[in-house]
Amino acid sequence: MFSKMKNIDTAFRHVRGFTMLVITGCILISCFSLYKSFTLVSQMQNKVYILANGKALEAYASDRKDNIPVEARDHVKTFHKLFFTLDPDDKVIKSNVTKALYLADDSAKRVYDDLKENGYYSGIISGNVSQTIQIDSVTIDLSNYPFGFRCYATQNIIRTTSIAHRNLITEGNLRNVSRSDNNPHGFLIERWNTIENRDISTENRK
Q1: What is the distance between the alpha carbons of residues 93 and 155, in angstroms, rounded to a whole number?
Q2: Cys bridge to 129: 111, 124, 193, 195, which one at CB 3.0-4.6 A?
Q3: Model's pTM, two decimal places?
Q4: Is the pLDDT of residue 31 over 80?
């Protein structure tokens, strides 16, 4: 009788140990599965799929601090291209300048008002002049806030008989603002100032 009880007690301990081992294994597997699931969900949330020309392109989301230099340079380039790309059409001029003024403060508005008052835009329309700009480089100083920038560019002024090339250097500051459809980068140009704007060369049109 005593031997049977001892065998039963041993078997019970074995069953209990095996059961605890199974439960521990299930808990570990469940925890690992939850961890991998959360990791996979997090990775999927950082992926963005963009549809372009009927093709799905995969992109990755990242913190803004990783893209500040790129976005800041593109903001400055976009502003200058809109502000200085002009054609002899009043609607085109107003459309481009209006878009540009969403990206800067009243320092840009004052420049626009001065040019308009001096008949600059009227001269472009009456003289059938087109103006384009090529951005050579943009430097951003991220060591201080607001971020200082300097833009180096070349203006091409296309007239009926000639094309004039002008060197353009501007500077200003960039301040963080809320993103919107009119300002997708979330920057605002402040204290915008033209340092240099001089003729480089002129060529006759054939």
Answers
A1: 16
A2: 124
A3: 0.69
A4: yes
